[in-house]
Amino acid sequence: RASLGSCEHTGRPRKKSPYMESQHRVSGLMLANHTSISDLFARMLKHFDRMFKKKAYFSQYVQESGKRKIIRDMEEEFTTASETVRSLLDEYEAIKRPDYASWSGDEEKDDM
Fold first, then answer.
1. Which of 38, 77, 102, 104 is most buried as measured by Cβ atoms within 10 A of its Cβ?
2. In whole angstroms, what is the distance from residue 112 CA to residue 92 CA?
3. pLDDT per residue over 41-78, tens digit each?
4. Which residue has the higher pLDDT, 14 or 111?
5. What DSSP character marks residue 32?
6. Do 74 and 61 form a contact (C-beta atoms < 8 A)?
7. What is the pTM of this model?
8. Residue 18, Cβ neighbours under 10 Å: how many?
């Protein structure tokens, strides 16, 4: 059994938070949301658009299902997913602007 001042799993000494005084052992997890994730989404969407334009892998679905209706439904699902990721990218780009607090996302809809 590890001593009171060390971690039970690793045996290393526990670190105390410099920000809080506590008699209890504290563990924490920090999650952060950064706009830098938008680069990953943009790359993923670019690759998806290329494959979707060429209908890559669709023939395998046709062979498996043998029904064109399933392919049309699948195309609709992929299109909806692509639009969702695109709107997420728009939101991340808007966050980078200084006027984000007043941004509603309706500007893109007005342009259509």
1. 38
2. 20
3. 999 999 999 998 888 877 777 676 666 667 778 888 88
4. 14
5. -
6. yes
7. 0.56
8. 6
